[in-house]
Specification:
Two copies of one chain form a homodimer. Chain A is of the alpha/beta class and 444 residues long. The first copy, chain A, folds into three domains: 226 residues, FAD/NAD(P)-binding domain (3-Layer(bba) Sandwich); 96 residues; 76 residues, no CATH class. Chain A is 39% helix and 24% strand. In chain A, the strands form four sheets. The first copy, chain A, has a seven-stranded mixed beta sheet with strand order 6-5-14-15-16-13-17, sandwiched between helices. A six-stranded mixed beta sheet of chain A has the order 8-2-1-12-19-18, sandwiched between helices. Chain A has a three-stranded antiparallel beta sheet with strand order 3-7-4. The longest helix of chain A has 31 residues. At the A-B interface, strand 13 of A face strand 13 of B.
């Protein structure tokens, strides 16, 4: 008899996991709170995009979806900063035209659900809300679309039900479960730069745009149809804050002061601002991720804030690593799940830290001359010494090396670069006899 | 009409708070999960003691209980360390015979409940378990002793229901509630050194005893009747761990190896070890502590691990500070509660950190010569320059200065003392012309 896997949550991680498990021959049941996106129009209708990079792409390759997803993506080769008076500066993400990919969240989720649906051994149930789990007997309580309360159970149970996971809530009630949820004092609001004439892009389509303003910022990522999804990150309270932007006049004054170059491209600004909700920014960490035959995957295990563009990529890497372990150790779930959490928790914590650090970088540092100098030296080192030096951004984004390694290496890189600048060597970076030994020294 | 306060939880914080509010003239209702300790024998019958120090004493003074409690306490003037071969060393806690007080937890709680019960405006309900709270309409759900489910409500609601607070669980479901629960990889087990002949103390009654063994330790606090309550702190897993102490032979071998001098005084060792539960060590932090008219007090707001002996003292200081604010601002609860959490959260976080740091100090550092030297220099500085230098332990234990100040000052003290030792000035501490300027320098 085939083993049965139950997946609670059919978002990005859950639907990708369903495909992986189906390919391994398991019977898969997936329960999703929302309606079936194959037959309904996405909620709200706003276009949310995400930055897909190497870790996510590697996971999609395993299920044969990478090419199809990248076909509908827009490459972003670097950051483009907009100063208060509209001056533009650029910071490339990597060397040799390396780029990250702006993809539609809804479009990607749809592709994953469609593919999962093609497997005869995958059964998906929508409008099904998980309210409880019995961790000891491998079952979960589901309220179905017609309001019935049912128990579902499997040989193996996955909680892919997101940052506010019901499965994790049950885990939190068990003995010695480590847990934290930490909110930033910032909220976010999604807005839109509309397409230009004939669906053209009004600003550089191959960049991730940032309006860094120190204590707050706006960013924009391109969409296929020529629009950009903008996200304003702003404090809840204080002089410049959501609390002080309650009417048309204050909203327009704020945007005209700080984002003047964008305002003409945002005809729905006031309406969007008034109608769209303020989102929260939460970091969730927990340990363990596995209790008995229940395992957490994706945001359910590690919600992180979006400033390194790694939320989805990290979640997809969870699934990929889990699938690799299944390949090696199936049907020994004890080993699979134990190795899974051993490998992933430390890395999820590392990228959570890096994402918090990058928030300061994006909203503040990227606009400062000394940071631009730092970035310039870093970029030169990547360019001149590709076999000796990799930036933290590269290690995180264009690599599958563990996040924890990228974190520690990033600290060493910082020390190296500040030392080079201090010694005045930033004007002598091509001097291999001096620079390579220094790179080696700081690597240790 | 008088305002009504509802207190969920009648442990140390809840019963002290009931008295304070009653003295202010409020109608108080208190609901406690356990039975009425005035009419029943304490659960289990084991004697648990706590270290009462200045912050706790100051709070007890406000309700007139300090003298009565201290009458039944045993002064502990310092730590006495027991080496593996039974050698004893001493570290005084302060100067001029300053001491902390070993008090019986059950005895103290009983005194508080008895005093609360003397106020006609205090109603106490026992065997009443809180299962839920409605934060918006000031009510909580209670399962009463006869199994009925009732709603209780007040003008002001306090959650003093301990580390696993039901009130806090409801708060955790609200927007932007920061929360963490972190477990040590250590458990603890309570054991006993019995009285000697005629109720005499078999080891120094005026010390807190420590058997520091690096990765684990045992401690013992004196009880009035001549016994000591011992607590073994040990890892769950690993070579020396609870996992490997499952039968009489392994338990005896472990104790004879590491705590040989104590074994003859612990005739019930094996039986106690087999029967007593393993306790967990958890640190709980959250923010905010106040939502609408609900406020958390004591362990419900900040469970800390016991290694600075400040859990109860911090909780009592919560109550004292809250009472001071009521005195100043009543009936303006908005101001009272806001000032309360502003003042207390930062300090609860500081003592939580210090308690974690002290665990390493107690189980490992106190047995090391270099640490003994550090402590010696610190003690000399306290002794020679009482107007210029205060140890962190003094600031935490014999003071009511904010914990956050003690934390930052402690870091500065460390830098000073290591610098003195490094410069060889530890043999010249009486040289005021050199030492006082150095103390001043490191204070900045």
């Amino acid at each position: 008899m085939k083993e049965k896997a139950v997946i609670i949550g059919g978002g990005l991680s859950g639907s990708l996991l369903a495909i992986c498990l189906a390919k391994r021959g398991l019977e898969v049941e997936l329960y999703e709170r929302r309606s079936d996106m194959r037959t309904t129009i996405a909620e709200g209708g706003r276009s949310i995009n995400l930055a897909l990079s190497t870790r996510g792409i590697e996971a999609l390759k395993k299920v044969g979806l990478a090419d199809q997803v990248l076909n509908d993506a827009i490459p972003m080769t670097g950051r483009q900063m907009h100063s208060k008076i509209g001056e533009l500066t650029n910071q490339p993400y990597g060397t040799d035209g390396q780029y990250i990919n702006s993809v539609s969240r809804a479009g990607l989720n749809l592709k994953l659900v469609q593919l999962a649906g093609e497997y005869p051994n995958v059964k998906m149930f929508f409008n099904c809300k998980c309210t409880d789990a019995n961790l000891k007997n491998n079952s979960a309580t589901i309220i179905t679309s017609d309001g019935a309360e049912i128990q579902v159970s499997g040989d193996i149970m996955f909680g892919t039900d997101g940052a506010f996971s019901a499965i994790r809530s049950e885990m939190q009630k068990t003995n010695r479960f480590n847990y934290s949820q930490t909110y930033e004092n910032y909220g976010y609001k999604e807005l839109e730069i509309v397409p230009g004439k004939n669906g053209s892009f009004q600003i550089d389509q191959n960049a991730l745009h940032i309006w860094p303003r120190g204590e707050f910022m706006m960013i924009a990522l391109p969409n296929l149809e020529g629009s950009f999804t903008c996200t304003l990150f702003l404090g809840y309270e204080g002089a410049q804050s959501f609390a002080n932007l309650k009417d048309e006049a204050s909203i327009l004054e704020f945007f005209n002061t700080y984002f003047a170059d964008a305002v003409p491209m945002m005809p729905n600004l006031v309406k969007d601002f008034m109608e769209n909700p303020i989102g929260n920014l939460v970091t969730v960490r927990c340990n363990p991720w596995v209790i008995n035959r229940f395992a957490l995957v994706g945001d359910a295990a590690h919600a992180i804030i979006p400033f390194y563009g790694q939320g989805m990529n990290c979640s997809f890497e969870d699934v990929k690593d889990l699938d690799d372990l299944i390949e090696q150790h199936y049907p020994n779930w004890d080993v699979i799940l134990d190795e899974y959490q051993k490998a992933r928790i430390v890395n999820a914590n590392a990228i959570a830290d890096l994402a918090c650090k990058n928030f300061v970088e994006m909203r503040d540092l990227v606009g400062r001359p000394e940071f631009m100098k730092f970035k310039h030296v870093e970029h030169e080192l990547c360019d001149l010494y590709p076999e000796h030096f990799q930036s933290q951004y590269e290690l995180v984004t264009f690599n599958t090396t563990p996040y924890s390694y990228a974190q520690s290496q990033g600290g060493k890189n910082e020390a190296l670069i500040y030392s080079l600048i201090e010694q005045g060597l930033d004007t002598d970076l091509e001097n291999r006899d001096i620079i390579i030994p220094l790179i080696q020294k700081y690597k240790q």
